[in-house]
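Example pasted here:
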Amino acid sequence: MKVGGPAPSAYDVAEHYDDAYYADLARRYTRRSRFARRRIANVLSLLPHVEGRRVVDIGCGMGTFTIECARRGAHALGVDPAPAALPAARRVAEGEGVRNAWFARADGARLPLADRSMDVALAADVTEHLDDHTLAAVLGEAGRVLRPGGALVVYTPSPTHLFERLRESRLLRADPSHIGLRPAEELAAALRRAGFEVERVAFLPSHVPLLSALERALARRVPLLRRRIGIVALRPSSAS
C-alpha cells in the first residue's frame, strides 16, 4: 500500500492465502500441534451443541472447524473464496475420515444459502482479515442465513495483546493480511449494528504454556493478556 493511499480492503490482501499458507495450517492441524489443540479448544468452548444442526463455517480455510463440527455430528458446510483453500480442506477431511463436511467456494459477504437455513454460523480467524465494509457485509449475511435464535460465533486475535503490541513496534513480524484487528468492544458494537444480540464475550488464551496461565488468570483486568477474543451472538427470535 502506498503511503497516504487508501486503506487496503479484504480483497486486496487475498493473495496472502496461497497453497503454502493452507499447507502450513493443515500440517499443524493433522499433527495436532500445541497451537492447533489450543485453537480448537478455544473455539469449541464458544460453540453451542452442534449435533444434528446445520453449521456454516465462514472463511473455513483448510477446514478445521467444518471438520470438527462434522466430527461432532453437525451437517457442516465450509465456505471460502480462496482458490487454494477448498482442495486443502477436502484433503484434510478425507484424511481424517470425516463425513458430513462439505466445502464450497464462496464469499462470506455473498453466501450461497437460503434465508434462515442455518442453525450456527462460525467466523474463526476471519474478521481480522476484513475491512469495515466487508465485515458489515459478512455479519449481515450471517444474520440473513441464520434461523431466529441461531448463533454466530466470532473468534479473532485481540489487538491489545502483548504480541500485537510488539508487532506494532516491529519487534515481531506483522501479518500483512491482518487489516482489521479490532478490540472486543468494537466487534460487539458491529454485531449489534448487524442486528445480533451479544450473549457472551470471552478472552481466550494462547498456546504458550506459562503465558497461557497468566492470560487465563488476568485477561479480564489486563488488556495486554487478552490473546483471543471470542464472541457468541444470537439472531433474535423475533427477527423477521
Strands lie at 54-58, 75-80, 101-105, 118-124, 146-157, 197-204, 228-234. DSSP finds eight helices and seven strands in the chain. The longest strand covers residues 146-157. The chain has a mean pLDDT of 94.
